[in-house]
Amino acid sequence: MTEQHGKPIVSGPAGNTDGEISLQGRSVSRGAVVGTALCLYGGKRQFYKKEIAGEQVDGEVMRFREAVDASKEQLSTIASDGNGDGNQARIFETHILFLEDRSLLSQIESMISEQRVNAEWAVRTVIDKYASRYKALTDKHLQEKYIDLEDVGERILSSLGTDSENDLSLDSDTVIIAKELNPSTMIELSKRNPAAVVTENGGWTSHTFILARELDLPAVTGIKQLLRSVENGEKIAVDGYEGRVILRPGKETIDNLKSSKHEGINLGDTELDPGARLETLDGQEITVRANLDLSTDYGPAKKVGAKGIGLYRSEFLFNRYRGYPSEEEQFKIYSRIASESDDHGVRIRTFDLSINQVSAGLAGREKNPALGLRGIRLSMRFEAEFRIQVRALLKASSANSISVVLPMISDADEIKWARGVISEERERLLSAGVPCGDPAVGVMVEVPAAVFAIERILDASDFVNIGTNDLVQYLLAVDRDNEEVADWFRTVHSSVIGALGKVLQAANRKGVSALVCGEMAGSPLYTPILLGLGARELSMNVNSVPRISALISRLAIEECEEVLKEIEGLSDGPDRDAEIRRIYQNKWAGLFDFSSLLTFSRR
Ligand code: PEP
Ligand code: MG
Fold first, then answer.
1. 470 lines ligand 1 (CB under 6 A)
2. Does residue 277 fall inside a structural domain?
């Protein structure tokens, strides 16, 4: 069998590996499985090809017609809200014309009824066919109409809404194959228990793969042309340790994969006492908490010794079909999570959503959504939704230990604004006789501006959560979701280390709790660096808690500080990762098994 990055190579006649195709990518969640491929298509609304029974055809055609009507209605509303912008109105009129094109619509309907496929598949296939016709035209103006057509296709797909309940089942060995996987699709898939995920694009810190690790779902990314190489129903082996997939795996490959052991860190079989105090070899107490993103149980985290929930990403409660959860729904979920996390409590982050997640119509075309209306900025724009969330949090904190975390903060005034809203809502609730608590209010430090404004931010906050995923992204100007620039996502870049040091030292000096809660906190390779920088609180994916806790109990702060000094002397050049490994190996021979750990830059 032959391997090549992203390019399928069919092997020659080599024993049991005959006919296998090995594709090399990057591991983004550990684990190995052999399963059956299911290809997912689409942008925001992702779907797969599904055959339907004869008696379902009429219903499916009706579903399609309703989606077309809903799309037209949306476009008319947006066009009439267009504040007199003639260009925008013309674009939407063009889109409406596509939705009234009898030939286009009847081809989609015929495909549903003749080929007995789901509406999503028919829409995609017919729109793709039409779009390629436009692309082949020589007239530039007409050629570009394919963009409008694809837009219309996405809109119909979104309007098709969620699939029926019947679709909520996947075979237990299903391996999801996609160009990219949206976090919202991952949440939907999580209810159907797939076996693994493989994509063309994505990064270690993208929310999709944060969720995959939380779900213990093997995942590999960075395989170019994946959708062209894999057929639906094909047997596929996913090696989430080595970051590769093998199509048509032979018996030998399957046996090897099943028996492969990748412990990552050689930590023996240490059993951790969940109630025990966790300390380093030199007696420094370290608090390890869990990140919780889905409204799943805190139970497993508690069992492995997590001391509460350091980050609950409430935006995963937002559903693009149903919108924001109601105050009552939020109240119930926050209360449940908080009561499970007992005295250690939960830090609930207010919605960290972007405008294009909330409203395709309002988003316009944000060129840089990561720099756009998101996090606290969106809450300031949609104050009514923020107030609803605040009320739910205040009520849930009456009987539980809840702290509120504000996302994407870049200056102290944003904190003052949010605190103002919180105290107004609190006064209103109390004067109406509604019991509510007085939650601590902290912020995510994840925007470089917050690092430079850290003294003011600490004065305005009760605690800080350091979000290394975004901090690295924004400091280095490297998109965390873009596989193409994954090599530039250098978590150990000297500017990242410098920024973390500045925040941790300032917080420690002022005696304000500073919790590192990005993916960096859950990767053993970073533990010595973080401890050396002064981190005493870490929050991570539940599955990382045992490994990181066991590692912490084998390190001394003094040694971590020594290692950090050596690292600070290194250049940022290409040898930096290898040099850090060498330093670790000299210091802690046997503690780190580098053969199966990913490189620094990719994590
Ligand atoms: C972070 O940015 O590091 C973080 C914890 O938040 P998120 O990954 O949700 O952006
Ligand atoms: Mg963030």
1. yes
2. no
Query: CA nearest 375: which of 418, 423, 337, 334?
Result: 418
- Say which amino acid occupies 569: G
Q: Ligand 1 pocket, 313 CB below 6 A?
A: yes
Structure tokens at 354: 């972007």
**Which pTM was predicted?**
0.79
Q: What is the DSSP string of 423-478?
A: HHHHHHHHHTT------EEEEEE-SHHHHHTHHHHHHH-SEEEE-HHHHHHHHHT-
DSSP state of 144: T
Q: 405 CB under 6 A from ligand 1? A: no
Q: Within 10 Å of residue 525's Cβ, how many Cβ atoms? A: 23
Q: What is the pLDDT of residue 601?
A: 41
The DSSP secondary structure of 181-198, one letter per residue, reads --HHHHHHHHTT--SEEE
CA distance 441 to 271: 35
- Do 34 and 101 sit in the same domain of this protein? no
At 230 the three-state DSSP class reads coil
Nearest atom in ligand 1 to the alpha carbon of residue 313 is 9
Question: What residues act catalytically?
Answer: 207, 517
Tell me which residue has its CA closest to atom 8 in ligand 1: 469
Residue 189 and residue 145 in one domain? no
- In this structure, is residue 594 part of a structural domain? no
pLDDT for residue 86:
63
CB of 543 closer than 6 A to ligand 1?
no
Which residues lie at CB < 5 A from ion ligand 2? 446, 467, 470
Does the residue 225 lie in any domain?
yes
Atom of ligand 1 lying closest to residue 210 CA: 8
| Rounded Cα–Cα distance for residues 264 and 290 (Å) | 20
Which residues of the chain are under the pLDDT cut of 50? 1-16, 84, 164-166, 263-270, 596-603
For 126, 311, 354, 357, the CA distances from 315, given in Å and listed in that order, are 34, 12, 10, 10
Range of the domain at 457: 287-588
Q: Which pLDDT does position 361 carry in this prediction? A: 58
In a shared domain, residues 141 and 174: no
CA dist 329 and 321 (Å) reads 16
